[in-house]
From TrEMBL:
Entries under PANTHER family matching the protein: NARDILYSIN (PTHR43690), PROTEIN YHJJ (PTHR43690:SF17)
Transmembrane region(s): none
InterPro entries (UniProt xref): Metalloenz_LuxS/M16, Pept_M16_N, Pept_M16_Zn_BS, Peptidase_M16, Peptidase_M16_C
Residues annotated as domain Peptidase M16 N-terminal: 73-115
Pfam families per UniProt: Peptidase_M16, Peptidase_M16_C
The protein, known as: Peptidase M16-like
Similarity-based family: Belongs to the peptidase M16 family.
UniProt KW keywords: Hydrolase, Metal-binding, Metalloprotease, Protease, Zinc
Residue span, Peptidase M16 C-terminal domain: 266-436, 750-878
Co-factor(s): Zn(2+)
One of the protein's GO biological processes: proteolysis
Domain of life: Bacteria
A Gene Ontology molecular function term of the record: metal ion binding
Amino acid sequence: MPENFQAFMNSRIPIFAIGILFLHLISCKPMIKEEKQYPYTTTQGDSLHTRIYTLKNGLTVFMSPYRDEPRIYTSIAVRAGSKNDPAETTGLAHYLEHMLFKGTDAIGSLDYEKERTELDKITELYEEYRSTSDLDKRAAIYRDIDSISNVAASFTVPNEYDKLLNSIGAQGTNAYTWVEQTVYVNDIPSNKFDQWLTIEAERFRNPVMRLFHTELETVYEEKNMTMDSDSRKIWENLFAGLFKKHTYGTQTTIGKAEHLKNPSIKNVIDYYRTYYVPNNMALCIAGDFDPDETIKLIDRKFSVLQPKEIPHFTPAVEEEIKKPTVIKAKGPEAEELVIGYRFNGINSSDADYLTLLDKILYNQTAGLIDLNLNQQQKVLDAGSMLVMMKDYSAHILSGKPREEQSLDQVRALLLEQIELLKEGKFPDWMLEAAINDLKLEQLKLYESNRGRVEAYVDAFIWGMPWPEHVSQIERLEKITKADLVAFATKHYRDNYVTVYKEHGKAKSEKKIQKPPITPLKVNRDTSSPFAEKLLAEKSAKTEPVFLDYRKDITFEDVNPSIKLHYLQNLENELFSLYYVFDVGKNHSRKINLALDYLSYLGTSTLTPRAFSQELYKIGASFTAFTADNYVYLKLSGLGKNAPAAIRLLETLLVDAKPDEEALENLKAGELKERADDKLSKKKILFEAMTNYGKYGSTSPFTNVLSDEELGKVTSTELLSELHDLLQYQHRVLYYGPAKAQEVLAELRSVRHYPASFKTPPVSDPYPELEQQDNQVYVVDYDMTQAEVIMLTRDELYDPLQVPLATFFNEYYGGGMSSVVFQELREAKALAYSVFSVYRAPKQKEKHNYMVSYIGTQADKLPEALEGISHLMNDLPKSPELFASAQNGILQKISTERLTRTEVLFNYEDAVRMGHSHDIRKDIYREAATITLKDIEAFHKKHLRNKNHVMLVLGKKGNLDMATLQKYGTVKELKLKDIFGY
């Protein structure tokens, strides 16, 4: 639970006491140095008990002590994003974000004086390169850049920043750039906070632009990847239409291809010096720490950063949009439409009205779009969202068409919901329910340290005083329905921009071609003096805490066939309840359709619309999730209303009334979604092709009703499917404020249970294929990149192998400091995204798989495949990397605390995988004794010279088929082969 800290002003020494103390001090020798004071502000009513400090150099520090586990979530936010990019070098803020991982003259440096000599040459060569148009001369300059970069790299330790963070047990090390911010995130053990501060203060002190040309190639890969994204096309076109003058719309975060091709290291350094100053930065933390001691540490470490005047950003003033603008874009994925309205920024009064209006339009249960469009199946899928920014904001409506429905028709339906807003045609109670929904969202957000820190980052970037952030709900409660209607009437007119994203061949920027890059030498077995000193520092040891299922979970019988797994929520008023069945899509091809059908039905006393409204009134939500071998039905919301929510759900489960029109619409929608899935490259590669690689043409993925079977399905069959589900043995998971006996009493009272239950099936109808020969399956798709997954089937799952497999993944291919990442991204710049992990199945008696993925330019595919294959057959050995992986695993586990529903689901996983205890205990115990030779032996046994299935998605004309034939028998697959329909 958060602690209630008293404000500094209430704890100061009284004035008369200060006078006495002063007289005493001057009479003493030697004089006692007065301890430095750190005044801070707090906000009344703030549930996070936030302290906000401003240090002497201008650095803002947000703190929320929250001791649910011995870890601290951190974000360092810089008020500079793509809107601050110079027009002639867009993408600069994003590129600098990448470079902040490359180290400094201390981090990652073996001999900076020698390195700097070479880096200065590279800087000047890039200036010459960008001012040269002759292609032959540019090629010659680039060869010099490549050659000198290899010399410079010999004086560095690539990725040392990531190694350091991994060694101290950090998780989620990453960063992101958007229009107004660049934010650097970490989740660290609290006993390593001192070391983390040392690393971060050094990181921002003097970043070195080393390994520039390979990282630039990584950004090229990211750019090429966005060219294959239809959602990116929608986003950029919408913002270009809404913001014709402001840099929100005139430039993009990743930048123009022509600018990325002609980079300037000088400009990157100038940008850093301009915006990366402490008075333009905030350090935001939440977790296990003492605020008084922590602020001293932060000040001591970060005082090295010097303040500087920040250029004032004057936002361009947009002209009023007086008539609808239509923008058309094309791409290979399914058609979609978005409508955007432009508003004033987050700190204007518009923001509060928009927050409520968006909830009334779409809340995933009872909003106007939910009930009028999604529940009535007038479109395939529709929704709304807010994009809140400092200078302007946007309210965005979206919709996907049904079969033979035009995008014009989707637009008309969405605009009808806006008209209903303007006419006030929504229930009076909706306003209060929307505010309660926002309160629930905030409670859920603030349950995590990450959620707390993200709120701080938003407030800082927006320049929003924290009291304004805290008092939002209070302001919303003062807004009336009449106020909302008046606002909607005034602001929602023909002043919108519509993007029609049609299916077809896209007009795109020309992809960035591969330059010749000599692989860099990776100095794995060296460390900088900075790293050696930091890692030698001792810190207090944190002992791990493992789950004891019999102590941490209360097990009760609802009846002899239904178990309750109970954990009480002593933190807030939220509850989550799950019905879990050990039957799934593998056992019934209709269960998924039946549960979808349920969402469109009512009961004998409640229409579908009324049911959704009743659920929303009491602050509850219901979702269903189906997997191959199990089904989850989930209820969540306010604990005090859990009994009412359970009764509503139970009534629906046993008293759902058929609706033939809804069923016919559902069938038609299912057919359209199937067609759309065949256009989604994510669906094609990660689901359809992956299942084909494991199982062949008949797999869990293809286990669906045929079009003909779907057309014949009746309401009676689907309702029987739901009633049949309730006849199976199942269990109830509950986390909430109610006592166990109260939950049991409620569950026992709401349903007439059968005298006996069906036992879930044990047999698995889909055996995995044994890989006799190397196979390469290719699917043709119109895209810039090529994406590859390599599957290698291994032994059956064995819990005894889990510790070594976990360690192997940490060392080999699971993170940014791993062998695979260093070799293929850092040294060779072959991909933006790459990983290779030994993956366990989701249930026992299934096989482990080695899964490798790389997304790369089609012209780099030969080098990328060679790189992956080489690593699978020849493991690079690094004692330094091994030690980092070992320290990381031990630190992460010792400071990890499973809480809330994590406890219940950890037990679920343990039962499914065939072990009766928290397996993290085994990993922690054995990780301390595993050696590098053990890692080598694991690699040799499970990876080397193994048969594989390679799955390649890309534009066939761009793929080097001769290269692919080196890796197995090549077979081109059609979409029907992998989808089964």
